Amino acid sequence: MITRRLFLTLLFAVFLTLPGFLAAPGAAQPQPALPKSDLVIRTANGPKHFTVELADNDISRERGLMFRTSMAADAGMLFDFKQEQMTSFWMRNTLIPLDMLFIKADGTILNIHQRAIPHDESGINSAGPVRAVLELNGGTVSRLGIKPGDKVEHAIFGNPPKSAGR
């Protein structure tokens, strides 16, 4: 026989988990604000300035840009893996097309995947070990002439942008 105290404890536990069960599958959950910083890509056409959110832990890297419906033209998200490694991304629960720049530890862009398709679960892979991945709005790479071999300036690569001026 269940005691009244045990019954109330179980009822309380069910009550605490209820909001998660009531949420629609795949529904956006609130995301804590990530730190923002300046990033510059040095291209043949000159420097390109961005303000990026830094995803530098497992939770923020896993969440990424999921459920976002828009992003400013000069914004992005920089995924820092802290050391070079092979990496693969997908677009599950991602609502906007993205360009993905795979960046070596010295800030050199190794490879680029343009216009990743929202909700596509196909793997998008680095061409070799990379320290970070930069996600920008789809079409940004071609619009600004960003290419493999261009250099990225950011504190994680030991070369923070010289100035925040645009």
Structure explained in plain terms:
With 166 residues, the chain is α+β, with helices and mostly antiparallel strands. 18% of the residues lie in helices and 35% in strands. It contains three helices and nine strands, in the order αββαββββββαβ. The protein has a seven-stranded mixed beta sheet with strand order 6-5-8-3-2-1-9. A hairpin with a 5-residue loop joins strand 5 and strand 6. It is globular and about 35 Å long. About 14% of the residues have low confidence.
Strand order of the largest sheet: 6-5-8-3-2-1-9
Helical content class: 10-25%
Order of helices and strands: HEEHEEEEEEHE
Structural class: alpha+beta
Largest sheet features: 7 strands, mixed
Attribute tags:
single chain, 166 residues, alpha+beta, two-stranded antiparallel ribbon, 3 helices, globular
